[in-house]
Automatic annotation (TrEMBL):
GO terms for biological process: DNA integration; DNA recombination. It comes from Nocardioides gansuensis. GO terms for molecular function: DNA binding. Pfam families: Phage_integrase (PF00589). Residues 182-398 form the Tyr recombinase domain. This is Tyr recombinase domain-containing protein. InterPro entries: DNA_brk_join_enz, Integrase-like_cat_sf, Integrase_catalytic, Integrase_recombinase_N, Tyrosine_recombinase_XerCD. Belongs to the 'phage' integrase family. SUPFAM superfamilies: DNA breaking-rejoining enzymes.
Length: 413
């Protein structure tokens, strides 16, 4: 009688034999998911242990159909290293700076000093949603950070599924805590001059700890003039700016000064020739007062090898984080505690101010183009702070007024 064909994922009769050294060997035929029947063997100190070891192997076994890039017994750290490697090689993947932020986020669930339940050593086959949640709970991260970590883990475990190391994604079942959506406000246009005065006063103060920050006032002025991201502004070169008309346009009344956003400074202080989005590389028209500021600055500044508009005393690019830190320092000073409009001010606050003003004068599409967004939805949702306008449609609703005597009824007194 012919041997019955095995169904995929099942095994045949387990046969055991005793070895010369006294241990037992269990073997059986198993039908892998690719339809190929293979014989597998496992040993044990006793006949029962050998059988149990082989059965346990079959329970976890995923066959030999994968490409070998990842395996069920690889740990989470190996998976994440592999995911970052693939992301760095992808032309359409996250930027280098974004990947660095992801690595920083993941430390909260990988570093034993940050969580009592680090994930790194767990084999992929053993990771469950409750294990990931335990790592997050132990780290005590905020709802926003939990959301970011979960997002990266979902993508990493999806890669493990693609390479057939696991069958399901444990990160997708980890509950997320809703993050309150608080729309950050711009600096009101009527308060801009007070903000400027406070920043310039602090930057040029004689009695102040630390070195002077002579560039900060001009950096803030240019943020107000352009709505650029802080990294974009700090990457600005003189060759990116046209402050005088070229010979072909001299006498042209339609010409105006402008600059080209051609890159950004990363959090590591490196200049790169790409932007945060596909729309980030863009021209921006300069108001006359900002063009005058740049002309004065160009005359006063000693030329530098980087051709940088804003350069440190050491001849290097400014770090975005340093500018953010200086504004934070000003906010926390007792001298400015009573200036409510200064509280919460960041480089991005001025970006929102510009978006709001352009929306009022032009429209949201114009604001989107100025800020270098790929979607008008992002501009409207996060950057434009529209004033409440009550539309007057009374000419229509007045026509629905009750007729004579209609108002007299059960409700009338």
């Amino acid at each position: 009688m012919a041997r019955q064909r095995l169904i995929v994922g099942t095994y045949g009769e387990i046969n055991c034999s005793r070895r010369a050294n006294g241990t037992w060997l269990a073997r059986a035929r198993y039908c892998d998911i690719d339809g190929v029947v293979r014989e597998y063997r496992k040993s044990g100190e006793t006949k029962t242990k050998a059988k149990n070891n082989l059965k346990a192997f079959f329970v976890e076994h995923t066959g030999t159909f994968g490409d070998g890039a990842l395996a069920p017994d690889d740990n989470v750290q190996r998976l994440l290293d592999f995911w970052f490697e693939k992301a760095e090689q992808s032309e359409t993947g996250p930027s280098t700076e974004t990947l660095e932020r992801y690595r920083s986020h993941l430390r909260w669930v990988l570093d034993p000093n940050k969580t009592d339940q680090p994930l790194g050593a767990y084999q992929l086959r053993h990771v469950r949603p409750v294990i990931i949640q335990a790592a997050l709970d132990s780290a005590g991260v905020s709802a926003d950070m939990r959301k970011r970590i979960r997002s990266v883990l979902v993508r990493a475990f999806d890669l493990a599924i693609f390479h057939e190391a696991i069958n399901g994604n444990p990160a997708t079942s980890v509950p997320t805590v809703p993050v309150p959506k608080v729309k950050k406000k711009p600096v009101p246009a009527e308060d801009l001059d007070s903000v400027r005065t406070a920043i310039r006063e602090w930057a040029n103060a004689e009695k102040r700890t630390g070195p002077r920050s002579v560039d900060l006032p001009d950096i803030v002025e240019m943020l107000v003039a352009t709505g650029m991201r802080i990294g974009e502004l700090l990457a600005l070169r003189w060759s990116d700016i046209e402050l005088s008309p070229p010979p072909s346009r001299r006498g042209d009344e339609d010409w105006f000064p402008w600059l080209m956003v051609n890159g950004q400074i990363t959090s590591k202080g490196k200049r790169v020739d790409y932007g945060k989005t596909d729309a980030a590389i863009r021209p921006i028209a300069l108001p006359d007062w900002a063009a005058a500021l740049l002309r004065r600055r160009k005359v006063a500044q000693t030329p530098n090898d980087l051709d940088a508009v804003f350069i440190t005393r050491n001849g290097t690019w400014h770090y975005p984080t340093n500018i953010q830190g200086r504004l934070r320092h000003i906010r926390l000073l007792d001298d400015y505690a009573d200036l409510t409009f200064l509280q919460g001010v960041t480089p991005h606050s001025f970006r929102r101010t510009v978006a709001t003003e352009i929306d009022e004068v032009y429209d949201a599409e114009a604001a989107k183009n100025q800020l270098g967004h790929t979607s008008k939805t992002v501009t409207e949702r996060h950057y434009i702070n529209r004033k409440l306008v009550v539309p007057d449609y009374r000419a229509a609703t007045e026509r629905l007024a009750p007729g004579p005597g209609a108002g007299e009824g059960a409700g009338a007194e």
